[in-house]
Amino acid sequence: MTPQSPSGANTWDNEHAKLPCSPNNVLKRAGKTISIWESIKSALTSPINSVDDFMDWNCKHLSAALHIKPDYVQLLPKIAQLALRLPELVTKPIPLLKRGAEGSVTLSQLQIACLLANAFYSTFTFRNSRDPQSEYSNFPLVNFASLFSKWHQNKNSSSVQKIVCILHYFSRIFADDFTGDGVVTFTRRCIADASSFASSDIKFNSISFGVSSISLIEDVHPDTMQVDFADPFLGGLFLNKGCAQEEILCCYRPEIIAGMIFMEAMECNEAFIIEGAERFSRYSGYFSTFQWTGNYDEIKDGHNSRTEDGHWKGVVVAIDAQHYRARGSSTQYTTESIQRELNKAYCGFTNILAPYKSLPDVVVSGNWGCGIFKGDRELKCLIQLMACAQSGKSLAYCAFSNSGFGEDALKVFKALCDKNCSVGAVLTALTTEFSKHS
């Protein structure tokens, strides 16, 4: 559904995102009912001409970002004005995409910009806590206040650079050539079980497999399915100190952040599909070395184009891997863990789940669930190959500067093809062999 017809902001229930502009968004104090939206309007129509106007909000990271890009100071009142257009731009309730049920939400780029402007000024009520007793405990945090206020002595910290990316995004939004009529679709998909994999006779030689040790996932051909090494909560720790692959994805494709408003945390049999999120920035580095390095243009730099329905070509697939750091890395070799990861990857890659249409034929991924998650790189690669074969997708694998691993992976794939191996046979062999050593 696309929020655009009249009536929406009045909706205030457990099935829809509670928009700041709703007349039901009130605070009762001393026997009086106070409209929170009226208070927001009062605050955002006050002069906002420098970071000094934020000092009561403890926005040290925002201040540091504006010192790096002082020309972005002029964006602050524009972002405030855009936030206040919420009742005009988002006039239909946005459903919460809750766990256990497939569903989609389509928003225009201008609607997303308005929602992100509200997140920038932290206007979303009840979205500042993950307390188990809070209403939105199983949803991501939304308000940017936590990102603005987290402080490190290094003014070039990754948190500051994340804010620079967001400010650059808004600078593009307010450019004369921005129309805002493109669309982004967020889909939650669910799969029942993985019982069919063990009996699968689909062969590995039915797909293609390529490896690069120098390419990044986002730099491969745009009309592909690009894997987000996701946290169960969309966006991961973007609004905190995190700056790994998913958080960086939100930096250069900030429209993804809008999904944090209405997408509940993923279950083990679920995946998120995001169609049409535009790339706005270039970057370098990772974790503490992350830096915004300039503008990115989908047409000039990415040679991308829009579909007939207004999406930029290309799909982001958010799938969360299991975390073995706490439970012990050996647990990933159990049948249960292998089935879980295979189920998760297949849920992300297949065409037979929501949005029930043909998605790009090539999955672009890499060391999913490795690194701090302690996943076995070779096993994770094989799991993704099985999921791709089962889905009828080819796999482009980014080995991230490890040419030796890439060469080994290609040898394994060639052997599987030469021996005409099926997904079911390899899965059975894996689980049987690992069970001998458990």
UniProtKB/TrEMBL annotation:
GO terms for biological process: ATP generation from poly-ADP-D-ribose; carbohydrate metabolic process; nucleotide-sugar metabolic process; regulation of DNA repair. Residues 203-403 form the PARG catalytic Macro domain. The active site is at D228, E246, E247. It is an enzyme of class 3 (hydrolase). Its EC number is 3.2.1.143. One of its GO terms (cellular component) is nucleus. InterPro entries: PARG_cat_C (IPR046372), PARG_helical (IPR048362), Poly_GlycHdrlase (IPR007724). It holds the Pfam family PARG_cat_C. GO terms for molecular function: poly(ADP-ribose) glycohydrolase activity. Residues 74-188 form the PARG helical domain. The keyword Metal-binding does not apply. Keywords: Hydrolase. Belongs to the poly(ADP-ribose) glycohydrolase family. PANTHER family: POLY ADP-RIBOSE GLYCOHYDROLASE, POLY(ADP-RIBOSE) GLYCOHYDROLASE. This is poly(ADP-ribose) glycohydrolase. It comes from Hymenolepis diminuta.
